[in-house]
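Data availability (excerpt). The following record was deposited with the supplementary files.
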Amino acid sequence: MEDKDALSKTEAAYALLRRDILNTRLRPGASLRLGALRDSYGVGWTPLREALSRLEAEKLVTAVSNRGFAVAPVSREELEDLMRARMIVELPLLMESIERGGSDWESAVVTAHYRLSRCKIVPDDASDEMADDWDEKHTAFHAALLSAATSHWLLRFQATISDQLRRHHRFLGLAPTQRAAAGLTIGYEKAAAALQDAMALEHHTALMEAALDRDLPRAKELMTEHIGYSLQVYIRSEDETVEQEGSKPLAGARP
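Predicted structure:
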């Protein structure tokens, strides 16, 4: 019984910490002090340590020498690497899913798209609850597109990549708004417009229609384009920071 209780406490700590890391309520780079976590989550030392060790194995937490743990940072380099990994893993899954999907798959895709369309979110002025809802529906839509694929390993890799990208997307989405709230408004409109474009329903609708039409080249083209939107948001956010600091744009940043 004690083993079961200890396991359930570890699972609870793991689930709570993982949720708040993915939703960036625990921000990238933030120190994870056991005392503060214990007070916030009402979980003991041992379950917290075990949960943090699991999250470190998932690359969501990093161990800092002589300082405990911290939330894994985000960066442009990491985002670009994740996007390459997503291309390699997700495009074959999408092609297979379109080729194999039957009427149940079609219904799942249409239903997930409808639910995503019902999310009324303003990217530059969204509450945590609105952002959580959009994240959930957006993830479900892409999962539905891939749901007829059969490779369990590729699907597992895809889920891991998706979680890491979710952290990056969430952090990037909040950054321009937070700077604007602090009075740093130079370049804000460009960053907000890039975010609005990345979240637009029209891209998802076109992707759904290409998938349902079994148009493999068009679906591949749209998914490749869709994956690239994340980098554009990051570039606009970087450009905004550079403008605030009065420096030149970073090398490689597209206009």
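Summary of structural features: Residues 240-255 have pLDDT under 50 and may be disordered.
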